[in-house]
Amino acid sequence: MIPGRLPARLEVSALLRRIEADGGFATVLHSGDASGGSLLLIVGSRGRHVGCLERVLGPSGGYEWRSAGPAESAGADEVPAFLAKRLRFDPDLWAVELDIAEPERFIAETTRLG
Q1: Please, which residues have CB within 8 angstroms of residue 48's CB and are 6 or more apart in sequence?
Q2: Is 73 helix (H, G, I), strand (E, B) or coil?
């Protein structure tokens, strides 16, 4: 685990509680390494794919969120294919699917918070 960073399982748990408290739905599609796994969020609204966010190490040395994977117009098979490819290269990845009321606002706030 990197000093100053919460274990991944705690971050995922907090994210699940946050989404559910806001009336959304969140589920873990793949559990990665409990302490240091990377995080991928698959964001949707009412079954419509909106985008993906991944937490990456930024140039300043801190973590930030950035867009990744299939865009909003992705076909039904693109998101599962993207996730399968990512898991082949990073089996420690945590993949969390969110279905929330205001996905664009969530993405904007999350990427701004970094």
Answers
A1: 72
A2: coil
CA distance 88 to 44: 23
Q: Which residues, in sequence order, are CB contacts of 112 under 8 Å at separation 6+? A: none
User: What helix, strand, coil percent values describe the chain, rounded to 5?
Assistant: 30, 30, 35
Extract the tokens encoding 95: 């993949």
AA identity, residue 73: S
Q: Which residues lie across from 51 on neighbouring strands?
A: 43
User: Would you write out the chain's pLDDT as a tens digit for each of its 114 residues?
Assistant: 455 567 889 989 999 998 999 899 999 999 999 888 899 999 999 888 999 999 888 888 888 888 898 888 777 789 999 999 999 999 999 999 999 998 888 877 776 655
Largest CA distance in the chain: 39
